[in-house]
Amino acid sequence: TDAQGYKLAQAVIRNPDGSTTIDTKAARADGSLANETITVTSADGTTRTVSVDVDGVIDRIRTAVTSTEADGTVGEIVANYRGASLVSAYLLDRTVTTTTWDVGGKTVSIERDTDGDGLFDQTETQVTSDPGP
To answer: Using CA atoms, how far apart are residues 119 and 112, in angstroms rounded to an integer?
Structure first.
């Protein structure tokens, strides 16, 4: 059971393309479905899509895509949508994080589109110096 007292059931499916689907259902005491979360992770682990149903229809979708470049730069894009599928859903918000390293340390750049209009509303840069020996 979870924190709300729902009985949890989980199915893990290995898909033919190598991706993995995890379907987690939470049932009320009377057996009716309280909510369902479906998580699909790509075979290489770089893409994850989480779909959430709280009323019998998928309501929210979160995608996370991670990439690593040859120079070690790591990028991650996390986007939240409202709707039943990515085809028909609309963007709620999006965060793009880029992490780079050089001899001086690490730089993390974060760009946020807080209202889903496709424009970044906030930009943040964090620089961590490597103090050396």
So the answer is: 8
Residues 65 and 114 in one domain: yes
- Three-class HEC string of 76-97: EEEEEEECCCCCCCEEEEEEEE
The β-bridge relationship of strands 105-113 and 122-129 is: antiparallel
90 touches 116 (CB < 8 A):
yes
β-strands 74-82, 90-102: how paired?
A: antiparallel
Q: What is the pLDDT of residues 66-109, one digit of tens each?
A: 999 999 999 999 999 999 888 999 999 999 999 998 888 899 99
Residues 15 and 36 in one domain: yes
